[in-house]
Every structure is written in C-alpha cells, then in structure tokens.
Specification:
Blueprint lengths: L3 E5 L17 E5 L3 E2 L6 E3 L16 E5 L12 E7 L2 H4 L5 E8 L6 E6 L5 E4 L10 E7 H8 L2 E19 L14 E5 L5 E5 L9 E5 L9 E8 L9 E5 L10 E4 L2 E4 L4 E16 L2 E5 L2 H4 L2 E13 L7 E33 L8 E20 H11 L4 E6 L12 E5 L6 E2 L8 E10 L5 E3 L2
Length: 454
C-alpha cells in the first residue's frame, strides 16, 4: 500500500490539522502530491526563490542523447520522475501529465513544448503501477528529445489535467429591477429535493459577489456560489441570475463562468458539462540536452541506480518511500572523474602444514579487491544529497566515465558498491558557496577476481 503513515507524537507539523499533541501516537495519512526518490528533484511550481530565477545563474544538469536508441546506454541518458498524488483525487477522474518545457532566450521564460508520451520515453499513467494505485511516472529518453525537439535547455513539468463532470440545474427568476433588495434571495436545491434560502443584499447589475455555504442543511459540503444579475438577453426574457455552483445544487442558472470559460445552458432541466481543471504540481531542475559527443561529454561521470523496497526521505522525518514490488531506475551525470583503480588488499584463505612439512603455506583461495576513487567536481548540494543516498544505497549501482585523460577507458556501466563515507566539502567562496566537491571510494561489484583450487 502506498499510503505513508506518519506517527504523530509532538506538536502538529505545519499544514497538518488534527492529531494529538501529547500522548499516544495518532497515525496521519499524507495525501499531498510528492516525488518518490529520484536524482533530480521536483520543486513546487509556485516556488519564487529569487536567488535562482535566472537559468544562466543556475546549475544545469548535463544530459546526452543518442538518436534512435530506446534504452539507457553509455551514450544515451534517461531520467525517471515518480509522483505520488492525492489519494482522494486519484480515485476520481484525475489525469496527471508530464510536460516538456524549453527555456527561452532570456534564460527565464519557460514554454510548454509537448505533453510527454511513450514517444519520448516510458509513461506509466496513474493507476497502472501494480500495488501502487496513487503512483504515476515518466522515464524520459533524452535521445528522443534530441531527435524530435533538438538540443537546448529543458525541464519537466508535472500538472493535473483532470476532467470533471458538473451537473447544473436551469431555471428562470424574474426581478422587478436591476437590483437585489434586502428581502430578495435565491433558493438552492440538492439532488434529494432539499433546499436552502440565501438572502441577497443590494447588488447592482453585473457586479459579482461570493456566498460561501458552510454546512448549511441540507448541504453537507463546503461550497462557494458566485452570482451576478443579468438583464434580459432577448425579447420575452426576464432578468436572470448568472451563477457558478458545485455539483448537486439547483439554483437559477443562466450561464456558468468557470475559469474564464463561458458555458451556456438554455431551457429548463439538467445540463452536464465536462471541463478541465489544470493545476501545476512540480517542475524539475533544468537539463542541458545535447546529442552525444565525446568532446562535450569529457569531464563527466554518469551513475545509474536501481532501487526497490523502502527507503526514507533525505529531508522529511518519518517519510518512507514504498517501492515494494517495483524497481525504479534513474541516472545522473555529474562533473568529475572516476578511476584511479588500486588493489588495496587481498582476501586469502591459506592452509598451513605441520610436520613433516612444518611451515608450508598453500593458498586455497585468493581474491583481489578492486577499489576505485570518484573525484566529484563542484556541484550543488541537492546532487550530493541524492547521490549519497539514492545512489550509494541503491540495490544496484553502475558507473561510466567519459574523461579523455582517464588512464582507464573501460569504465562503461561498471557495477560498483560504496567502500566508505560520502563527505562533500563545501566552498566558502561567494560564487561557489552552494556547491561542493567530494572524494569517495568504491569497490567493483561483483568482486569476481578470485583464484581458487576448486
């Protein structure tokens, strides 16, 4: 089950109403959309961080694509984005879309290019991931982006484009003037025939007002009714009320104005209208997309990780990502060099003889431990955080090096495991203070350089 249960024993966290502040833990269900692991983070669309508004001043993740290649390779990069959406909405007609955006020449303006589909990678719509009905994901093939859109600076946007059906009830109201008086009002009807009278105070022609219905019987849900008085539209018609209301209400309705879309109904009866409710959830950090070229890839290292099971979030306490039954592949290309292979130790199993061959040593098994160094050049903290956890703690981790000066040109999707700590060193310099370098040790996986007698 993909619901994350958070035991709450202290003060309520911000934005989390309810629960207890002392005593026994009270499980709280997290239903807001959030990203599941991933090397490149998704940030809120409403993020107004002024320190990173200009792409030219931001770190841009380098990625390369190979034309007509449909899997991750040494030359072709993939990135995966998995989102867990609102549990309640996911049970309705929710449609989550992944949008490819391109950065404009001003280095600030982002434009939607295309709704991502299997043409650009692998799309798993909401509800299609077995065991995780609230998960949706897109694995982007940057080679397809290079082929179909060309090189450039891109990012991924995640938005909700749900299709909602709203039933409205049409009738006419006659008023003697273009104003509501103190004792005037309208009656709302629900589907069961119940009604509630809403008094309307002096309201002039075409001026809007909003009434909030807070659990007024027989209505058990919160709702807002926006109305304005309209003059007759043609001969024989009376003054009308223009209303916007939720499903199940039956006020006098001439037209419905939903987010600027004018929906017209005529006659008396029920009118059902489908409309799209678009809201942006996340946008990714930017990517610099190019066709693979040895010269341009020089100076980079690519890590490829596969995760399954459960793993905690690097920032939020008690948030555990559930990947049970699925395997999440992701990759990240960073500035640096990987190599400097050594054999710091051998694992030996020896047989020592006694009399009559006292002191004789016979080697039964010998294993050479191949160790590598990764020198990561300046990169932002979010990459260090995610590489150190979602990379080094992955079930499988592979590495590829692209440095021309590297003494080893055979490091291409080589399996590795961490062989020590991951400790970035951050700069005090003003221009690099959000960046850090790192040196980490790795061991080859599988370690198969073994000599044995049998």
């Amino acid at each position: 089950m993909s619901i994350i249960l958070i035991p709450q024993t202290g003060p309520n966290p911000p934005g989390n109403a309810g629960g207890t502040t002392r005593g026994n833990p009270t499980p709280t269900v997290t239903v807001k959309p959030f990203q599941i692991t991933g090397f490149v983070p998704l940030k809120a669309c409403t993020d107004t961080e002024c320190r990173n508004s200009d792409v030219s001043c931001a770190y841009i993740n380098p990625v390369f694509g190979a034309i007509n290649v449909f899997s991750p390779t040494y030359e072709n990069d993939f990135n995966t984005f998995v989102v867990n959406v609102d549990l309640v909405k996911s049970l309705a007609n929710q449609q989550i879309q992944f949008i490819l955006q391109r950065c404009g020449s001003d280095n600030k303006t982002w434009s939607d290019i295309v709704i991502l589909s299997n043409t650009y990678g692998i799309l798993q719509p909401l509800g299609s991931i077995i065991g995780h009905p609230t998960y949706t994901s897109f694995q982007i093939n940057w080679g397809r982006v290079v082929l179909l859109q060309g090189p450039g600076v891109y990012r991924i946007k995640v938005q909700d484009n749900s299709i909602t059906s709203v039933s409205t009830y049409q009738s006419y109201f006659e008023f003697p003037s273009l104003y509501f008086f103190f004792d005037s009002g309208i009656t709302l009807y629900n589907n069961e025939g119940g009604s509630v009278f809403i008094p309307l105070h002096g309201q002039a022609l075409n001026q809007q007002a909003v009434i909030t219905l807070l659990n007024k019987q027989p209505f058990s849900i919160n709702n807002k009714l926006t109305f304005s008085l309209q003059p007759p539209q043609s001969a024989g018609e009376q003054n009308q009320i223009q209303c916007q209301s939720g499903t199940g209400f039956g006020p006098s309705i001439r037209r419905i104005d939903f987010d600027g879309i004018l929906l017209t109904t005529r006659g008396t009866g029920i009118s059902t209208t489908n409309f799209s409710s678009i809201s942006c959830f996340f946008v990714s950090e930017p990517f610099f997309v190019r066709a693979f070229n040895c010269e341009q890839a020089d100076g980079t290292v690519k890590f490829e990780a596969s995760l399954t099971g459960k793993i905690g979030d690097i920032k939020q306490d008690y948030l555990v990502y559930d990947l049970s039954g699925i395997t999440l592949y992701d990759s990240i290309r960073v500035p640096g060099i990987f190599g400097y292979e050594t054999i710091p130790k051998y694992l030996e199993v020896n047989l020592e003889y006694g009399q009559p061959s006292l002191g004789k040593i016979e080697r039964v098994r010998d294993e050479a431990i191949q160790q590598f160094e990764f020198h990561g050049f300046p990169m932002p903290k979010y990459l260090h955080d995610r590489l150190g956890v979602y990379g080094l703690m992955a079930d499988t981790l592979k590495v590829s090096d692209y440095n021309k000066v590297n003494s080893d040109w055979d490091i291409k999707q080589v399996g590795i495991v961490k062989s020590g700590a991951y400790e970035p060193q951050y700069y005090d310099d003003k221009s690099l203070r959000r960046f850090g370098k790192v040196k980490a040790l790795f061991t080859r996986n599988p370690s198969a350089v073994i000599k044995s007698l049998c």
